C-alpha cells in the first residue's frame, strides 16, 4: 500500500477530471479522501467546454514521467482518437510503474464513430489490462462479460444538474412541447428521420408542438460537423409546419441547457446506436420526460419511454406511440434531491473502496 493510502488520501489520475460525471463521483462534502489530478490537455489542441480534451495524461511518456504523483489511473472518456498501439504503450507504462488501471465503460459503441471497429479495438486494450472495470447498467455489464470475460462493477450515473437548480420549480407553459436537439449531429444520430416521424407523431395531439435545436457550427464550412444539407432540410421542415420551430444557436451554457430542459415536456433521443446518456440523467433531474431508442441501455438508467430505433432502422409507428404515452403520462417523474445526494455519497464511497482494494 502506498504512503498516500496509509495517510488516508488516494490520488487519482482521472481521464478526465473536469467532466460532470467525474466531478459528481466525489463526496459533496469532500469526505471521501480521493483527490483527482487536474486535467492536462495537449498544448495547442482544440478543447471541449470544460477544457479536458484531448487528455494529455493518456500519453505513455507522461505516465513514465509523472507516475509518482498518483496512485490509481482511471479512464472514463477521451481516448476516441487514440490508436490501439498508443493505448498499449500507455498500459505498459502503467504496468512498469505498478499503477493499477481502472476503466469505466460509458460507451460500448462510440457515438462519434461511424464504424465500431476502432472503439472495439481500443476497449480490447484497456479492458484486458484493467485491474478493475466499472459500468453504469446491468445490461452493459452483461455485454462486457460476454465480449471480454470481465466482471464489471455496476455503479449508477450520478446526478448531472447541480442540487440548487434541481430544486427549481418547473415553469408553466401552454401545450405539449416535444424537444429534438440535434447538437452538432453525432454519427449515431438520425436527425432527419426522427424529425419527420415526430412531425407526424404530434399531428392530432392537443397543443403539441415540436422544437428542434441545432448548433450553428453545422452551417460553418470549415467546421468538422459541416452539414449544409441537414440544416437546409430542417429549415424547410420548420417552414412547412406551423407546429415546428427550428432554433440554431451556439452551444448552451449549463444554465441555458437547464432552462431548455425546463421548457420541454419531453426530450427525444434520436440515436441509432449508443450505450448510456448523461442527457437522460439531466432530464430526470429536472422532471423532463425522455423518449429513448431501443438500442443501448438507456431504459436501465432512469424511467423513460422507449421506441424502436437502431442501426437496422427507425420504427416511426413506435415513436408515435411513445409520444402519445409521454403525453398521457404527464407530468414525468422527477429526481428526488435527497435520493440523489445519498446516491452521490454512496458512489464516492464505492469508488474509494474500489481504489483501496486495488492498492492493498
Short description:
The protein is an alpha/beta fold and 360 residues long. The protein has 14 helices and 14 strands.
How would you sum up this structure, described in words?
- With 360 residues, this protein is an alpha/beta fold.
- The chain folds into 2 domains: 3-159 and 341-359, Rossmann fold (3-Layer(aba) Sandwich); 163-328, Rossmann fold.
- 39% of the residues lie in helices and 16% in strands.
- It has helices at 3-6, 20-23, 60-66, 84-96, 117-129, 138-148, 163-166, 191-202, 228-240, 254-262, 278-286, 298-301, 316-328, 337-359, and strands spanning 10-15, 34-36, 72-75, 101-105, 132-135, 153-154, 176-181, 208-215, 244-249, 266-268, 289-293, 305-307, 309-310, 313-314.
- The strands form 3 sheets. The protein has a 6-stranded parallel sheet with strand order 2-1-3-4-5-6, sandwiched between helices.
- The chain is globular, with a radius of gyration of 21 Å.
Structural class: alpha/beta
- Global geometry: globular
Compute the average pLDDT.
95
Strand content: 15-25%
List keywords for this structure.
360 residues; alpha/beta; Rossmann fold; disordered N terminus; six-stranded parallel beta sheet; 2 domains
How does the SSE layout of this entry go?
Blueprint: H1 3-6, E1 10-15, H2 20-23, E2 34-36, H3 60-66, E3 72-75, H4 84-96, E4 101-105, H5 117-129, E5 132-135, H6 138-148, E6 153-154, H7 163-166, E7 176-181, H8 191-202, E8 208-215, H9 228-240, E9 244-249, H10 254-262, E10 266-268, H11 278-286, E11 289-293, H12 298-301, E12 305-307, E13 309-310, E14 313-314, H13 316-328, H14 337-359
Parallel strand pairs: 1-2, 1-3, 3-4, 4-5, 5-6, 7-8, 7-10, 8-9, 10-11, 11-12
Antiparallel strand pairs: 13-14
Helix pairs in contact: 3-4, 4-5, 8-9, 8-13
